[in-house]
Amino acid sequence: MKKAKIGLVCLVRKTFDFETAFKLYQERTNKVTQDDSVEWFNYPEMVITPEEATKASNYFLDNKVDAIVIVSATFHLGHLALIINDLCRKPLLLWGFNELPYDGGKIRLNAVCGVNLNASNLFKGGNDSYIVHVGDEIDQDFIKAIKMKVAIEGCKVGLIGYRADGFFNVGVDELHLYKELGVLVTHYELNDLFSGEASEEEITKERENVLKIFDASKLNDFQINQVAKLVVLATKFTTREALDVVAIRCWPEFAKNYGVSPCAMMSILQSRGILLACEGDIEAAISMIAVKAAGEDTPFMADLSQVNYQENFALLWHDGVAPCNLWDGVCKRSLETYFAGGKGVTADFVLKSGKMSILRIDTARGKTRLFYEEGEAVNMKKELSGTYAKVIFNHHISDVIDTVVYTGVAHHVIMGYVQYSKAVRYLARIKGWEIIDVSGNRI
Hints:
single chain; Rossmann fold; six-stranded antiparallel β-barrel; five-stranded parallel sheet; elongated
C-alpha cells in the first residue's frame, strides 16, 4: 500500500515568543515524524513572511506531498496559509498549540487566534476541506484520514467477471469512479483466473495448509484439491497483475465452471492480507482498502443479514469468506458444501468478539457517500453455515437498518476490528462527500 506523504510547516510572528514556539514545534514534530508509516517532509525553517511561505510551498511541491500540516505556533500573518493553500492545493490540518503560562501578563503564543484567522480566510476564500486541531499533540485522526485518502486514490482494482446477477445496486459508473478517485478498473474474465498454472508441489503444500486450518471432513479429495489449487492460482494472479484489491463474480458461474466456489480460497488469502471482495462489488473492494488503511489488516465483507429488534442485535454474515484469522478460537472452523448445489465449499466459523465498525463507500444518484457505524461483536454459538458475527451497534439496530434502507446504501459493508469515526468524518470533509449518519429519524 502506498505511503502517505505529509508536509509540516511552522508559522510564527516575531511580536510573540516565536523562538520558544519554534523550539516547541521542533520537539513536537520530532515525535510526530517517528511514525514511519508516513513519509514526512518537515520544512526546516520557521515561516514569517509571504516570501518564506512561497519557499515552503515550493518545497512541498517538489516533494509531491499528499497533505500539509500548517502549525500556528504563534499568531502570524494571514497571507501565509493562503499562499500555501493557493500554490499546493492539498488537504490542510490547521494545528494550533495550547497557550503557554503568561510571562508578566503578556500572551506568549496567541496560536488559537492564528488558527481562527487561517480557518476564516480559507473558508471565505472557498476552501471547505481544511481540518482544525488545537493541542500539544498532532491530530492522529487527520493522519489516518490522509492514509485512507492516499490508499483509495489511484488504487489498482481488478474485476474478475462482472457483478453478481441482479445486484444492480453494486454496479458503478467507472468514469465517476475515475473522477472521484482516479481509479481505472481492470477487467478480467473468470477463465483468466482458472487458466493459470499450479504445480503438484504447490497444490500439495496448500492442501496441507487447508487441512491445518479447517475441518474438511465433509469435502471429497477433488474439492479439497480444487480449493488448494485456487489458492495457488489466485495468489499468482493478484501478484502478477499487481492488484491492490480484487472483486470477483463468485456466482453463479464460478462453481459450475471450476468445480468449487471461491469462498474458502478467499478466507485463506484474506488472512494473508490479500484483499478480495465478493459478487463483483467494486465499491466494497475500494472500501476494504480504506478500512485496511485505517488499521484493520484483514477486513471482512458482510451483509447486514439478520436483525433482532427486540434484543437489539444484527448478524453480519456472508457465504464463508471472512479471513480465517478472525475466527473466535472456540467453535470448529470447517469447510461446508451447502452452497451452489453442493459445490460451495465455504468457510464456516464464528468471528471473534471485540470492538468493531462497518464502512461503505457508496455512490447513489451521482453522489459518493460514506456510511459508517460502530459497535461490538459479542460471543455466540456456531449455529449456521458461513462466516458471521453477532453485533450490537452503538445505535439501536432499528435505526441502523432504517438509515441503510432509506438512504439506499448497498447491501454489503466492510467490517473491521478498528474504530475511526473521526477519521471518516475528516475523509468525507476532505473529499467533499456526504456522511450518512445513523440518526434514528429516517421516516
